[in-house]
Write a structure and sequence with these properties.
About 35% of the residues lie in helices and about 20% in strands. By secondary structure, it is an alpha/beta fold. The protein has 4 domains: about 5-225, 3-Layer(aba) Sandwich (Rossmann fold), CATH 3.40.50; about 240-330, Rossmann fold; about 335-525, 3-Layer(aba) Sandwich (Rossmann fold), CATH 3.40.50.720; about 560-635, ACT domain (Alpha-Beta Plaits, 2-Layer Sandwich). The structure holds nicotinamide-adenine-dinucleotide and 3-phosphoglyceric acid (3PG). This is D-3-phosphoglycerate dehydrogenase.
Length: about 625
Amino acid sequence: MLTKTAEHQVNFVIDFDSTFTQVEGLDELAAIALAGNKDSEKIVGEIKAITDKGMLGEIGFADSLKARVALLPAHRDHVNTLIEFLMGKISDSFARNREFISMYRENIYIVSSGFKDFIVPVAVSMGVKEENVFANTFTYDAEGNIIGYDESNLLSQDKGKVKLLQALQLEGDVYAIGDGYTDYELRESGLANKFFAFIENVERQKVVEKADEVVASLDEFLYINGLSRSQSYPKSKIKVLLLENVHPKAVAAFKNEGFQVELLKGALDEEELIERIKGVSILGLRSKTNLTKRVLEHPNASRLMAVGAFCIGTNQIDLAECERRGIAVFNAPYSNTRSVVELAIGEMIMLTRDIFTKSNKMHQGVWDKSATNSYEIRGKKLGLVGYGSIGTQLSVIAEAMGMEVYFYDAVDKLALGNAKKCKTLEELLSISDFISMHVDGRKTNSNIIGEKEFAMMKDNVIFINLSRGHVVDIPALVNALKSGKVWGAAVDVFPYEPKTNDEEFMNELRSLPRVILTPHIGGSTEEAQANIGEFVPSKLLQFMNNGSTYGSVNFPELQLPALEDAHRLLHVHQNVPGILAKINGIFAKYNVNIKGQYLKTTNNIGYVITDVAKEYADEIVEELKGLDNTIKFRMLY
Ligand SMILES: NC(=O)c1ccc[n+]([C@@H]2O[C@H](COP(=O)([O-])OP(=O)(O)OC[C@H]3O[C@@H](n4cnc5c(N)ncnc54)[C@H](O)[C@@H]3O)[C@@H](O)[C@H]2O)c1
Ligand SMILES: O=C(O)[C@H](O)COP(=O)(O)O
């Protein structure tokens, strides 16, 4: 059975504010009651400050409660509004673990120094027994205004939780879960066997220090205690490392799912990456961080499951090594295509009108009005090297602007519009007025444009490289510019690029006239980065949550159905004959009911996904993991 139960009776004493729900109920009640009041911010601030002091044990609880209620001009209607608000603020990990709550209903207690008036409806809606909710109660006047609270209630007193638990005399072990000092006091008093500091919503150092265990989600608590839960392995224990300042949307996407996320602004070199990849399961990078074999084979990278290239190019990643290790890689193949195309068009116009020279002169006070060496792009021949997503989109737009488009691609591509296919690179180079590079960054594309290729070009050609730096031999381009073979150039990518904005850009192209230099920003628009920040995490999350690999650049591609009332076992293995039979042999041996099974292979690896009934023997997992040629195994609940 995967669904384990505690071997002996355990009572779960759970705090409400900032634990069961994400917020402090009384603070929120104050904000609701004071909405529109000119002193609202001040009074709510005072109430919150007192709440915090109480949580940290810096003032006695009874004093803190009295002070806060005295500041609270609330009515019964405000309490009703608060209840509605709190229904939407149940902590994520509690919301997804209703099954645990119903399974352990008899032994789950909500013990709070808050108020039953709003706690009971919220807790009961989640399956908690009303009789098991212990909290204070407000007193109201005839008009429904809150005028105080029941001061005889143990929970309104100092050490109220301790007194209540003494009175309850629970049988069996007691595990206290909460974010406040008063929750720890249950452990200190000996009434609780263990105290779990719950930090999903708020982390208080003084409380964390006292904890037997610190849990970032209810799943983590359930995992530690071998209890039934919604996640096979708690996401709060899974590390996501995002590099190169990926869009905040990406950070939010992973945080919202409960992962541990770290974001670094710059790229990392090999040594730094080896250091930082320790314990990381999901890595996000852009074009500047190289994920090499050396990094991948280091023991620090042993937890790596998935990589997101938050860009188009994936030449910086050793895809084959990732595949060999069962690490799925995803990218954003179209999210910045348009941005690159727009930049290329803009640069062609700027160069052919020699705008930068004129603009620089103007800044020095020189008025040089003349049409000499200034041309339209209309009617000129544009030669595209690489006719993929960017090349084709540029082809269509350039043609709409009146250019004659030629292209050369390593594979046979259908021409769009009136574009003309060139059979050889030489043919394309010899007829084009503008040459724009849009090949991918595979190693064999190193220096595909060098002295020989520049020599084949027309005189006064305009040359653009927005693809990858190593595609063009820079000294050869410098010579071609100096000799006048190339009239002007726009270069966005370089064989070596600074790791961060703090590093100086060093390149022989610096200071040459009619050369537009940009810091690899072809894809750096707000639109493109926001698109990428949504697209890549969505692929990574699908892989993590459901096993789907659709869109992966190195893995067998599978679009899997949602997981319904089953456990999903994901097995990655070397692609040798007989593995599927062996896997199914294990299922047959343990008489497991298979609900669905999917298999896809590449030349090197196989990916088998099996959905099975929730009840089966734990030994199956061990046997599957132990099968010869297994690369990776994981399980989804
Ligand atoms: N400057 C930037 O910020 C920026 C932004 C996005 C993409 N890029 C770069 O642009 C590249 C192209 O992007 P894409 O989306 O069009 O990729 P793509 O894979 O759709 O197209 C690349 C095309 O180049 C062709 N090709 C590869 N090697 C070739 C060669 N030697 N000769 C002729 N054709 C060759 C391929 O067959 C393919 O059709 C990316 O791989 C990336 O490196 C740069
Ligand atoms: O491959 C890409 O998409 C571009 O080179 C952009 O890379 P970047 O995200 O590092 O700017």
